[in-house]
Write a structure and sequence with these properties.
The complex is a heterodimer. By secondary structure, chain A is α/β, with parallel strands linked by helices. Chain A has helices at about 10-15, 20-25, 40-60, 85-95, 105-110, 115-120, 150-160, 175-190, 210-220, 230-245, 260-270, 290-305, 315-335, 340-345, 410-414, and strands spanning about 5, 30-35, 70-75, 100-105, 125, 140, 170-175, 195-200, 225-230, 250-255, 275-280, 370-375, 390-395. In chain A, helix 3 crosses helix 12, helix 3 (about 40-60) runs parallel beside helix 13 and helix 7 packs across helix 8 (about 175-190). Chain B has one domain: ABC transporter involved in vitamin B12 uptake, BtuC (Orthogonal Bundle), CATH 1.10.3470. The chains are: A alpha/beta, B mainly alpha.
Chain lengths: ~425, ~290
Amino acid sequence: MKRRTFLGGAMAVAVVGHGSSALAQQPPIKIGMSMPQTGGLAGGGKASLLGIEIWRDDINAKGGLLGRKVELVVYDDKSSASETPAIYAKLVDVDKVDLLFAPYATVPTAPIMPFVKQRGLLLMGNFSFQVNSKVGHDMWFNNAPWGPADSWAASFLDLAQKAGGKNMALLTADQEFAQNLALTARDVAKKRNIPVVFDQVYPPNTVEFASIIRALKAAKPDIVYVASYPPDSAGILRAVNEIGIGDDVKIFGGGMVGLQFAAVMSNLGSLLNGVVNYNTWLPEKSMYFDGTKEFFDKYTKRAIEAKVDPLGYYLAPFGYAMGEMVAAAVNSTKSLDQKGIAKYLRENEHKTIVGPIAFAADGERKETATLQAQFRGVKDKDIEQFRSSGKQVILFPDKLKTGDLISPFEAARK
Amino acid sequence: MFSMDLLLGAVVLGVLLGCFYAAVSVGLSVSFGLLDVPHVAHPAFLVLASYGVYQLNDSYDLDPLLAGLAITPLLFLFGLLAYRVYYETFEKRGSDAGVRGIAFFFGIAFIIEVLIILQFGVDQRSVTANYIGKSWRFGEFRVPIRQLVAFAVALALTVVLAVYLSKTFMGRAIRAVAQDEEALRLMGANPVRIKQFAFGIATAVLGIAGALLIIVAPVEPTLDRAYIGRTFCVVVMAGLGSISGTLIAAIILGVAESIVLTMFGASWAPAISFAMLLGVLAVRPQGLLGR
């Protein structure tokens, strides 16, 4: 297990001048986490970490927290659920960190939930999905905009039904995150009497999707809900383009992980057109709040050097927002008491660069802010096009909406 | 829901997929099947070759297949070097070297994975060519052109390698070293040099196989893990060292996977593939065309 300690920049300390002596004298506040830096989740993990590092540098430039420098203690969990319990035990018992951030994603986070609950520790969640639903830890706060469990599928099916969709096909990866999405999609469909005419779970490492797409097409669905992971998302869209999906399909997408990342979007190019998919932040007018533009200016410069996602929309600003929320709580309670911080986080609405955040009792957002957006007018091999508005039109939620659904799917692809 | 059209489509797509599996396994058939080298780094070499193809395609807009051909000599030299290191450090030292050799090749695979991450990052990479992303229509049935290209090239690669091993002097020498190393030594030939050359050939064919890998789907640094099971399954099912057996086994695996994916549900596909392997080995322990 390789240890990487990220110290706050010395330059930042020098800039604050008078406060620098205080910063240097007191021990730093240590925030510990694991982060996938190798393995399948590394693309997201690295971008998320860069967002957190930018927050650390900003907060240290302003004099730190409680007059103390902020230091990150980060280990690579290799995207593996088996690594994280040992890492978090070490962070708490050996490194004696003051606060814990969760790793990016559901799979590495799920196994540490019993540990933090048992120890009564605050854990800032980082884009996991429903990891606290069964554990019920009251000191868990997820930075992701998911909201109530069924809102994700409900928003997609709202759009689908408005477009005339009456039956659904479900194609999902055999993996925890995708299966959680599939579960809620089946529930919502059942409540709304939408028959599921095709329901397939594909295993990880599926190489070729042409056969699956042929079978899906034969079921003649008019709503196609896909919950996939990055390597598969590209394979599925390629197969859809080559095999076709049928003229009945009103809406396609929903929960495809990967289509939020610059490299995948650039690779797929025009194949993305028409797909309606979830997202978290997009460069549309409705998504800019105090500090958002400044954050992306810094991110864009540092992403090249760090060889991470050059756009960084999906995770990085939420990593920064996680730091902002903790900073607000620590400054308001003037302490590192984890129960006090948790109480503050639960009872207040927090201003962040991704908009206001308020938590429900389960530590998820009170209201969903997960976007459903449709790709439009995307050209091949051009990452820069995704920096301008209009390439992913926001259809949901209403308060952030920037356009209406184009349906059926085949028409939207043109 | 049974449909003859669906079944027929699944068989056609399965044959195409199977030929692709043959292409990515045929190098292993030589290195593991003929030379008895526990080459678990074979899929990592394959992914490395794909990144080489990506680099040439991205920088010089070279067609992926030509890029695969272009890196073949480099891969050959890399194969010679890898075998020499393996031989000097493990094989030369005795009979239990095989087990330790597995650790050696696992180590190599991890090093390759990390080097790819350092150089290219963790994101998926893909290539562009005018046959990627399009399909040919036969009435209602559509076949991805990239799959047809992979099919034709994989078939050609397998046939060329089979002919090389059976008709040329060096090919026969490679087969001879696989059968009886001592006899070859008594005839004055150097079996180590022949094995080194054969390992070079096994690595060189990964130029084309790597090109097919990145043509069929995007690659990422840890993709090798997805192919360890499949490639070894094909080679063992084929009968160790049988090139034509590799093609047949790969097609059987591809068709089985495709039919299961289409007709019975995707989650059964890996189980069915490996159940078939066990079934074949139960009836013919030496594999389909093994002696």
